[in-house]
Amino acid sequence: MVVGIPTNSLAKGASFQLEKKEMHRIILWLRNDLRLHDNPVLNWAASQAKLAYKEVLPVYCFDPRFYDRQVQKYQTKKCGLIRTRFNIETVEALRNTLESIDSALFVAHAQPEDFLLKLLAESPMHTTVVY
Questions:
Q1: How far is CA 124 from CA 19, 20, 23, in A?
Q2: What's the pLDDT score for residue 60?
């Protein structure tokens, strides 16, 4: 089962290959580059078509340390309303793009290290790609 990426996409210059034998969960932690059409990590994950048993999970975390933290000197949040709105709209656009190719985007308002550990714990064989 492939979730997230069409398997006919090709990556250029992928430097390593995954084993074919067991189920692989490829977790794509998306942080800044939220475009689908020219994202090298998404292309790499899609190029792993030789893996018969793979699951590709694109993930975006709204980290509370960034969005909820107060700057005491100015009595404001670290991330203001306009930037927060822009980030939400960008994540929504990526989700819509992924849904248009029968995929999904996992979104969480959590610290990435906690959320990703939960995803890693659910699969005996996994690869994490951070971008």
A1: 13, 14, 8
A2: 94
Strands 54-61 and 106-108: parallel
pLDDT digits (tens, 9 = 90+) for 37-82: 888 888 777 777 666 667 788 999 999 998 888 888 888 887 888 8
Nearest to residue 2, comparing CAs of 57, 59, 60, 41? 57
* Tokens linked to 49: 């078509």
Q: Which has more pLDDT, 63 or 16?
A: 63
**Are residues 66 and 32 in contact, defined by beta-carbon separation less than 8 angstroms?**
no
Name the class of domain 24-130.
alpha beta
Spatial contact of 5 and 46, defined as CB atoms under 8 Å apart: yes
| β 76-77/126-130 pair status | unpaired
